[in-house]
Amino acid sequence: MNVKPLRILIVDDASFTRDLIRKSVRHFFPSFPCDEAHDGEAAQKLLLKNEYDLILSDWEMPKMTGSELLVWVREQEKTANIPFVMVTSRGDKDHVVEALKLKVSNYLVKPFSNDKFGKVVSGVIMKAYSLTQDELVRLSGSTQGARLTGGARGGFSEALQISSDIGKPKEERGAHELVLRPKGKLLIPIRTGKGSQTHILVRELSCTQLLGVIKAGEMVPHIQEQVVIDVQAAGAVARINGYIHLLECREGGAAADFLNITIVNVDQNDESKRKQLEAYIKENG
């Protein structure tokens, strides 16, 4: 068994995605140090300079794509055997087949749930370093136990399953989750990393996601864009970080000027923010 914590390289041109992946690593593998690169060329420099045990890379990046980086990694004697997980929104069969041919270790489709990340990445690590789940838990300093793998050991069928809870109504997600469906008009302000801001007309709010409607002309966000939602409850303001999972046009007359939007909460494992959000849901329910 490797007695040293594994060192991970995160490669993505979007700072928000790097931050999201880093938070997931910290959640499941708290003792594993992480470095970041904003594109494939920057990743090459770090790989030549440092020793890494796992690469988590986006597919589409400027200067050098994830697939080009993967080819380079497999060609270098120093890096040829490093486990490589492609983290990308390109989850169609053709791209999966292409990644397999390039000798990718596994494939994680965005958007992914925190649990999905833990299962896929831990499966890759266990397979690459011949670790049992208990050994991985001890090595990583994890407190998650069985949540790490759920039986997954790097299978592509696991990687291609996007979080099953996103977009589902309450009765399909589980009765234990608090859900707010306002009877009246409830607006929540949101901001993007680029400084744009608008309000969402809330249709449904839980601790994992926000479903609502925005006016198309006020802000034109895009899928995977980082947003911040400010909710006030119990005399305090909770700054909830999330990303846009779904945008769709509304049809018919005046409705065509609005967009349906789904935002996934990436702070759902932050206990203090979760309690504030639950308080907000109860106050407005």
Descriptive report:
The chain is an alpha/beta fold and 285 residues long. The chain has 9 helices and 12 strands. The protein has 2 domains: 8-159, Response regulator (Rossmann fold); 170-284, Thrombin, subunit H (Beta Barrel). It is 31% helix and 27% strand. The protein starts with 7 loop residues before the first strand and ends with a helix. Helix 2 packs parallel to helix 3. The model is unreliable at 150-175 (pLDDT under 50). The strands form 2 sheets. Strands 7-8-9-12-11-10 form a 6-stranded antiparallel barrel. It has a 5-stranded parallel sheet with strand order 2-1-3-4-5, sandwiched between helices. It has helices at residues 15-28, 40-49, 66-75, 93-101, 114-129, 133-140, 156-159, 170-173, 271-284, and strands at residues 8-11, 34-37, 54-57, 84-88, 106-109, 179-180, 187-192, 197-206, 209-215, 226-233, 236-249, 258-265.
Brief rundown of the structure:
With 285 residues, the chain is of the alpha/beta class.
Secondary structure layout plus pairing:
Blueprint: E1 8-11, H1 15-28, E2 34-37, H2 40-49, E3 54-57, H3 66-75, E4 84-88, H4 93-101, E5 106-109, H5 114-129, H6 133-140, H7 156-159, H8 170-173, E6 179-180, E7 187-192, E8 197-206, E9 209-215, E10 226-233, E11 236-249, E12 258-265, H9 271-284
Which characteristics define this entry?
285 residues, alpha/beta, Rossmann fold, Thrombin, subunit H, 2 domains, six-stranded antiparallel barrel, 9 helices
What's the CATH H-level superfamily name of the largest domain?
Response regulator
Main sheet summary = 6 strands, antiparallel, barrel
CATH class of the largest domain: Alpha Beta
Which structural class should the secondary elements be placed in?
alpha/beta
Average pLDDT over all residues: 80
Approximate shape: globular
CATH architecture of the largest domain: 3-Layer(aba) Sandwich
Number of helices in the DSSP assignment = 9
User: How many β-strand stretches?
Assistant: 12
Q: CA-to-CA gap between the ends?
A: 52 Å
Side by side, the strands of the main sheet go 7-8-9-12-11-10
Overall structural domain count: 2
